[in-house]
Amino acid sequence: MESALQVKNLTVHYGGFTALDGVDLNIERHATLGLVGESGSGKSTLARVVAGLIAPDEGQILLESELLTKKRSREQHKKIQMIFQNPDASLNPKHSIRQILSEALLFHRIVDRKQVERRCREWLDRVHIPGNALDRYPHEFSGGQRQRIAIARALSVEPRILIADEPTSALDVSVQRSVLDLFNTLKEELQLTMLFISHDLGVIHEISDTVAVMKQGRLVEVQAKAPFFARPETAYSRELLSAVPRMPKLSTTPGGNHESRT
Amino acid sequence: MKPITIDSPTPRNGKTGALSRLWRTPSLLAGSIMLAVLVLLAVLIPLISPYDPTKQDLSAFLQPPSAEHWLGTDQLGRDLFTRLIYAARTDLTIMVLAEIIPFCVGVFLGMIAGYYGKWLDTVISLITDTFIAFPFYLIVIIVAFASGAGQRGIYITFILVGWIVFARVTRGLTASFRRQEWVASARTLGLPGVRIMLRHILPNVLPQAIVVLMTDMVGLLVAIVTLGYLGIGITPPTPDWGTMIFDGQPFITTAWWLSAVPGFAVVYTGIALSLVGDGLADLWRKK
């Protein structure tokens, strides 16, 4: 399979602290890489470096064999979109949903002005938000709804890679469920390539094709999902898996085992 | 696809029109009415009063309040009420004009410092901290003397130092927004920094900046009046509350209202502006 994103020897220092230490990673096209690790392991830093929010001290990021430099073009920005953890802060409080969605569409010239309204409604429909939401403001929505609006905005510019940094962690369990289902639906419909970050192995199990484990800024294990959950290679991965109160059943049908999670 | 019912949209509660929100914020309402009365009087005074604010009539000096002269006359026989309202015109106009440039410059520089950080922030913070080290009135009096009495000194001083308070407030807010995820999303979208500042951050810092503007205007008004009182502000015969207080001072035992009334006008305006500022802060906090 072709690779959509390649990361080579990525290193980031914050003062004396090494957040990323020579990370090599490969995401295949139309596949989802689930990135797990404890907090502080460098998952979010990796996501932010790939998204272009942090400049790496060393290393390369290749997007479909195109080298991404510190200063990215508009086209390059469009290709990588990101969804953030905190739904309370992910949408500009002073912008209506219409402004939020149409700004992305118009800036990247996805549609022209005449079709913006229609496209916005299509996206809201796709993420199960009623069309009358357009003239409302973020504070009028719940966390789950805001997260879905953020998903709509990120996907509306037709990115090659979607980065999701703990997109369900701040949500209630029931809402988490519906957002995860949405990710799975969209993933299939749109053939998404995703870098999905979570500290929750249950979530990773549901969404990923490949699992990567991070510890102290390094990648300690990268494996296809089924073998990872069945026979993790490293001691650290085994430790992570055993820390889950009740292991998800190792069924191969995605979404079929959420009842076992607490 | 099945519809999701877990988190349906929260219904809009009540009317959200600007007018109905004004009614629900009593301090804003009171402040606005007080200001409106003053501004209306200042605009309409040529129609209300038959007197000229600068024309002297020595045959009618130091009269107590009467039907003819609502607040009496001063030592040069000028109608006090007329002068009071004409002075409101002078002082309020200067107050508003002298705030415009500092407000815009301060908000803009504050956003740049907060958004870009690093050396730009260091330079801008260095300037603001340096100015803060000098007492405000020291700078005002030095500049007023250097540029000669009159309105020019007030404008120059305020352009020099007035922006600092806005820059400081805006810088702090912008720096905190910079860490928020909606700014990060705008950056991943590829929006240029200038656009993020003007379209995304500005609408979020503006409410706070306007609240600060209201309190700052009170300070500026007091400064204008103080300079007038000290004789290095607005020059006679242009009516101004500061010079009026000074001129009435020798008659404080016989005609106390000459000084008290313009003093009261300063307090009245200050309260009105503070109420508007408090009200706006309440309004935006509730939302």
TrEMBL record, chain A:
<feature type="domain" description="ABC transporter">
    <location>
        <begin position="5"/>
        <end position="241"/>
    </location>
</feature>
<keyword id="KW-0067">ATP-binding</keyword>
<dbReference type="InterPro" id="IPR017871">
    <property type="entry name" value="ABC_transporter-like_CS"/>
</dbReference>
<keyword id="KW-0813">Transport</keyword>
<dbReference type="GO" id="GO:0005524">
    <property type="term" value="F:ATP binding"/>
</dbReference>
<dbReference type="InterPro" id="IPR050319">
    <property type="entry name" value="ABC_transp_ATP-bind"/>
</dbReference>
<protein>
    <submittedName>
        <fullName>ABC transporter ATP-binding protein</fullName>
    </submittedName>
</protein>
<dbReference type="InterPro" id="IPR003593">
    <property type="entry name" value="AAA+_ATPase"/>
</dbReference>
<dbReference type="GO" id="GO:0016887">
    <property type="term" value="F:ATP hydrolysis activity"/>
</dbReference>
<keyword id="KW-0547">Nucleotide-binding</keyword>
<dbReference type="InterPro" id="IPR027417">
    <property type="entry name" value="P-loop_NTPase"/>
</dbReference>
<comment type="similarity">
    <text>Belongs to the ABC transporter superfamily.</text>
</comment>
<dbReference type="InterPro" id="IPR003439">
    <property type="entry name" value="ABC_transporter-like_ATP-bd"/>
</dbReference>
<dbReference type="Pfam" id="PF00005">
    <property type="entry name" value="ABC_tran"/>
</dbReference>
<dbReference type="GO" id="GO:0055085">
    <property type="term" value="P:transmembrane transport"/>
</dbReference>
UniProtKB/TrEMBL annotation, chain B:
<dbReference type="InterPro" id="IPR000515">
    <property type="entry name" value="MetI-like"/>
</dbReference>
<feature type="transmembrane region" description="Helical">
    <location>
        <begin position="28"/>
        <end position="48"/>
    </location>
</feature>
<feature type="domain" description="ABC transmembrane type-1">
    <location>
        <begin position="88"/>
        <end position="277"/>
    </location>
</feature>
<feature type="transmembrane region" description="Helical">
    <location>
        <begin position="152"/>
        <end position="170"/>
    </location>
</feature>
<feature type="transmembrane region" description="Helical">
    <location>
        <begin position="92"/>
        <end position="116"/>
    </location>
</feature>
<feature type="transmembrane region" description="Helical">
    <location>
        <begin position="254"/>
        <end position="277"/>
    </location>
</feature>
<keyword id="KW-1003">Cell membrane</keyword>
<dbReference type="GO" id="GO:0055085">
    <property type="term" value="P:transmembrane transport"/>
</dbReference>
<feature type="transmembrane region" description="Helical">
    <location>
        <begin position="205"/>
        <end position="234"/>
    </location>
</feature>
<keyword id="KW-0472">Membrane</keyword>
<keyword id="KW-0813">Transport</keyword>
<dbReference type="Pfam" id="PF00528">
    <property type="entry name" value="BPD_transp_1"/>
</dbReference>
<dbReference type="InterPro" id="IPR025966">
    <property type="entry name" value="OppC_N"/>
</dbReference>
<protein>
    <submittedName>
        <fullName>ABC transporter permease</fullName>
    </submittedName>
</protein>
<comment type="similarity">
    <text>Belongs to the binding-protein-dependent transport system permease family.</text>
</comment>
<dbReference type="GO" id="GO:0005886">
    <property type="term" value="C:plasma membrane"/>
</dbReference>
<keyword id="KW-0812">Transmembrane</keyword>
<feature type="transmembrane region" description="Helical">
    <location>
        <begin position="123"/>
        <end position="146"/>
    </location>
</feature>
<dbReference type="InterPro" id="IPR035906">
    <property type="entry name" value="MetI-like_sf"/>
</dbReference>
<dbReference type="InterPro" id="IPR050366">
    <property type="entry name" value="BP-dependent_transpt_permease"/>
</dbReference>
<dbReference type="Pfam" id="PF12911">
    <property type="entry name" value="OppC_N"/>
</dbReference>
<keyword id="KW-1133">Transmembrane helix</keyword>
